[in-house]
Amino acid sequence: MRNRTIARELAIKALYQLDLFGNDIISDMDTFCKENTEKSDIYSFAMALIKGCRSHIKEIDEKISSVTEHWELRRMAIIDKNILRLGVYELLHMNDIPPKVSINEDIELAKKYSTKNSGTFVNGILDKIYTQYGNGKLLKGTKSISIQQVIPEIDYGNA
Fold it and tell me: Torsions phi, psi of 16, nearest 5?
């Protein structure tokens, strides 16, 4: 596994914890990352992602909310929400990473850590954000995405 992929996984785990327990544990994230990797480049990239996501969380959440219909951020699975946050942060603030690489990495994280439909969900949302936001500005003529467009209806049968 590539170092940046490992760093993204570490960042997602840290962001998940921060979402559950709040900013009171932000100082523990440094220790968490150090304990989970011995490589300085993995640690540095993971910490940059964590700090970047947290420092831009309001902007990131607004961008996510702007492209979703019928799906409030608070209703999203915590892991999916944080994978999206990571992806949006990379798309808008890390110009050295090709957007398609960021999106693909986040799709793979969703497939690994969430439900079977989460990869499709993450892809739909991040692709919409990538399409709509050029240099952090909303492009003309764009529309929001509906959750029904991303995740198909599930037939539970007689459950």
Answer: -60, -45
Beta bridge partners of 137: 134
Q: First-to-last CA distance in the chain? A: 39
pLDDT digits (tens, 9 = 90+) for 35-49: 878 888 998 999 999
> DSSP E strands: which ranges in 49-127?
68-69
CA distance 111 to 119: 5
Q: pLDDT, tens digit, for every residue of 36-95?
A: 788 889 989 999 999 999 999 999 999 999 998 877 888 999 999 999 999 999 999 998
CA 19 from centre of chain: 12
Nearest to 75 by CA among 84, 21, 108, 3: 84
Instruction: Read off the amino acid at residue 1.
Output: M
Residue closest to 93 by CA, chosen among 40, 49, 144 = 49
Distances (CA, A) of 10 to 34, 58, 71, 127, 153: 10, 22, 27, 23, 32
CA gyration radius, the chain? 16
Return the half-sphere exposure (C-beta side, CA atoms, 13 A cut-off) of residue 52: 19
